[in-house]
Write a structure and sequence with these properties.
Length: 171
């Protein structure tokens, strides 16, 4: 089918045009059901048609919000070192339900967070060699804060690293 024929056929049947758009969107990247619906509606697809397509894709397994949210949470935590607070914000922005978000984040325990934050803090601290201790502390606290770690954890790590630096200089 030529491009022109495809365009003509898609303009005659709005449902067929919507299905073609949806397949194209899902083929390019995994999406949440809310994201796919919003993108279809933004492309002038009737909301009821978009809802029907999303429901059908969920039914046949092309959309699975629970597994996609779990995958996103896992990669954000392991590859970027993000804390659950930041991951949850991203998942909400992408349109995942609160139950999917909660289930995606349940594997990130306080111990996992502390381990990840400690590794990130140590790595960043080493790269700031030569800076004043206050500057290092301020930059590290801001860095970990942007990653979403709780303030008590951040300042505990900063205190420990500053103490270790002072002991290394003192000996």
């Amino acid at each position: 089918m030529t491009t022109r024929a495809r365009q003509e056929s898609s303009t005659t049947d709005p449902a067929e045009r919507a299905r073609a758009l949806a397949i194209s969107m899902v083929d390019r990247a995994q999406r949440s059901s809310a994201d796919l619906r919003a993108k279809l509606v933004a492309k002038d697809v009737e909301p009821n048609i978009a809802d029907a397509i999303v429901a059908r894709y969920i039914e046949v397994g092309l959309l699975n919000d629970k597994s996609l949210s779990a995958m996103i949470a896992r990669t954000r935590q392991t590859e970027r070192g993000q804390a659950p607070r930041v991951i949850a914000q991203e998942l909400r922005r992408k349109g995942f339900s609160e139950s999917d978000i909660a289930s995606a984040l349940e594997h990130i325990t306080v111990d996992v967070q502390l381990e990840s934050a400690t590794a990130l803090a140590a790595s960043r601290w080493e790269r700031m060699t030569g800076l004043d201790a206050d500057v290092k502390a301020r930059r590290l606290a801001a860095f970990l804060g942007r990653k979403g770690y709780p303030a008590s954890m951040v300042f505990g790590l900063v205190r420990d690293l500053t103490r270790a630096d002072n002991e290394a200089v003192g000996s």
